[in-house]
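Usage example:
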Amino acid sequence: MLRADDLTFAYESAVFILDGLSFQLAEGEVVSLLGPSGCGKSTALRLAAGLLELTGGNFEWQSTPELAFVFQDPALMPWATVAENVQLPGQLKGKIDREAVHEALDAVGLSAMDDRFPAQLSGGQRMRASVARALAANPKVLLMDEPFAALDEMLRFQMNELLLDLKNQRGLSILFVTHSLYEAAYLSDRVLVMDRGQIRGEVTPDLDRSASAQDQRTSAAFTSAVVAIGALMAETSQ
Amino acid sequence: MKRVLLPMAAFISVLMFWHYYVTLNDVPKFVLPPPLSIWAALLDNVPLWIDASGATLWVTLQALFAAIVSGVLLALTFSLSRTFEATVYPFAVVLQVTPVVAIAPLVLIWVGIDNADRAQVIIAWLVAFFPILANMSAGLKSVDANLSDLFKLYGATPLQRFRLLLWPTALPYLLASLKVSGGLALIGGVVAEFVAGSGTSTGLAWRIIEAGNRLQIEKMFAGLLLLAAMGMLIFYGFTLLEWFVLKRSGRATDR
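Running the assembly step on the lines above writes:
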C-alpha cells in the first residue's frame, strides 16, 4: 500500500526531524508509530498526507491513495452542524455523497445528532464526528495523529474498538500515531518505536482477533507486546 | 430583566436629583436647564430634530458601509500577502492615531467647504475603518491550523477556502468590530460637522452649535440626548445582529 524509503525532513534550521526513516504499510494493516515527544512521528504522518514537503527520500504509493486525516483535536468547524462538518471532504471535492455521509454518521453512532453544532456535543462525540468526517471521504488509508489522546480511558477503549470494527468493515489501512503503549499494542498489527527520526525497533502484538476485546486486552500476547514496546521505549532518548 | 431595570432605575434617579437640584437652588436656565424643559425643547421642534438626526445617521451609515467594505478587503489582501501587510499597515496605524479633529480641517479644504457632508463621510470613515481592519485581520489569522491542513488535504480551491473557512472564522471578529466602529463613525461625523461650523451641514452637531450660539442650552441638551440615543441604537443594533448571526451558526453565548 505504502512504502516509505529513507525519509529525511528538516525545517529551515539544519536539525533533522526525520533522519532516514523507512517503513511499510500493507493493505488492511494497522501500523502504529510510537516514540518520545519530538521523535518525528507526527511529522512522518503529515509528510505522508502531503501536508509537508520531504527534504529527502520518497513515499511510494501502490495506487493513488484516497487519504483521510484525523487530528488529536477534532478540528470541527464550530459554525457548522455535525452533518455539514462530515460532508466537508465531499464538498471540497465538488460532490457531496449523501449516502457516504449518512453511512459515516451511522458508523460512529451520531445519526441522531447530525443537526447539532460541535459546541452541543461531548468530547467523545466530537471525536466521533471527526472520525465520521474522515470516513465520509471514502478513504483507503486513514492517517491518525493521536486521535484519542484527549479522551478518558473508558472512552478511549470504546473508540479503539469502534476503529477496529470500521477497519474490518471497510478494509482500511491505518497509520496511527500514539503516545500510549496499551493503545498501540491493542490496535496494531505492527508497532514501530521511533527515536530521533528513525525506527528503533518493531513489535508485532499478534492478538487473537476472534476473541472479545476484554479477552484480547487481558491475553498473554497483549501483555508481552506491552512489555516489549516498553523495553524499546526505555532505550529511547526521552 | 435586571440588565434593563437597573440602568433604568439609575437613570430616573439621576433625572430626579437633577430636577430638584436645579429648581431648589434656582440654577439659571442658561447654565443647567431642568430635565423637563429639555424634554419640551425636544417636543417643540420635532420636524427639525428628525431632519437633523436623519442627516447625521445617513452620514454615519455611509461612512460605516465604506469602512466595512474597505476594511474587509484590505484585511483580505493582508492575509494574502504578508509583504503587503508589512508595507501598508503602519500607514493605517498613522491614520488611526492622528487625532481626527486635527485631520478634519484638511479634509474640509480638500473637498471644499460647500461639500461638508462629503467631508463628514470621509472623516467618519477614517475613524471607523481601523478597528474593522485590525479585527478582521486578527480574525483571518485565527484560523484553526488543523482545519486549514484539512482543506489543503482535500484539495480546496482558494474560493472554497475563503467561503467555507476564512470568512466564517473571521465573522465573529468582524461583528465585534462593528460595535466599536459604529460608535466611532458617529463621532467622526459629529467632529467633521463641528469643524465645518456653518455652511451646508444640517446634522445634529450643527443644531447643537447653533443652539449654543443662541444660548438655548435646553436645545443643546436635546441635541446631545439624541446623539447619545443614536449611539446607543447603533451599538445595541450591532449587538443584536452579532447575537443573531452567531446564534444561527451555533456560536452565540447566552447573554
